[in-house]
Amino acid sequence: MNEPAPDVTPDVTSELAPTHGTLRRDLRACTGDGATYCLMVGASEGYFSALVLALGKSNILGGLSATIPMLIGSLVQLASPAGLRRLGSPRRWVQGCVQSMALLTLAAGAWMGSMPTWLIFASIAVYWSCALGAGPAWSTWVARLFPERIRARYFASRSRLCNVLQLASMLAAGWILSLGERGSWPLLAFAVIMAAAAMCRLSSIPYLQRQGDVRLTPADIQPVDWQSLPRRLFKGDLRLLLFLACLQGALQTGGPFITPWLLNSLHMDKWRFTMCMAMIFVSKSVALPLVGRLIRRMGPYRVLTIGTLGTAVAIAMLPFDTSLGWILFVQATFGVSIAGVELAGFLLQLETLGHRERTSLMSMYWAMNSSATAVGSLLGAGMLKALGDWPHAYATVFIASAVLRAVVLMLRPARPRVQAIAVS
To answer: Quick one: which of 24, 209, 341, 359 is 20 to 30 A from 60 by CA?
Structure first.
């Protein structure tokens, strides 16, 4: 069977040719949506595991709460291409994928002081179902709405702003948790930050409404050709998606267990814990202009490779010292590295995925990504359980994760024959 023909469908953005005023309105609205969304993320996602621990659950459940619900959400979102095909409006679909009710449920559980494990996981799974379900439609929406000539520069600037706001939200949430810990009302503090995150998400709806919509027909959302998929993933144009998904699995072998390591093994207070988590976003925000220049000079493929190696080095260094300064340095190293992985990977996806397949392929990718995440976290959890109370259990898991991150480089796609993309 022949390889799939390259996508030759003209870029719809060039056909629509939005006016300057309309484009500026859409860019402002997209930025506002991203800003409010990241305020929600900063006050919620990074603290899911900490909330699970605060509710009296085990370290392993705390780590798995960051990955198993995401896997469930990724399976639910596989229905998003069919739903979008029926609805025909990415704006309406994304507006329907608001996570506020899931966050308010978590806030209620923290307020009451207890919550069944199944309900915690179900609430976080609904959160991820909405987040991942909106992702493919949003990717199709902005790819069609914004001209290709401005995407790289615009999204690099948008990412910088979003990282800063996510950091600010994370620090504010950490400050509230620190006050709650000192004032003996820790669960109430969790209720406050989860409720605030829900309000931030609701505030993004007006921005979504102001952003221009695009009309999609069933032909614009082609399903994945499953027969040709194995060849395309392992030897064809989708090898990039396989690599990114496997890298995510390697990252999650150790990543989710940093939180219980810091809180329960090192007995770090909430403010220092927040500083360690926030350092990733500080370093990402600072590094993005440099990453943009490196992509312009070296191309996204090399930056993706360097970033992947950097993530492996970072987690391998983590257990060698438990001082706050060392942990902050390691987190900064990881933040710079993951900035390269995320921006280079995003730009390479724009180059690789055809317009008509984009929604279905992104939906498939998020399922692959979350499945790899769950497998990685289960592997890390299994190692921790097998090692028991051994003092070097966490260090072993972190080093194993570093090895996997380096090994995943063997799955890198062939270097694409595209010019480097200017992003700064």
So the answer is: 341
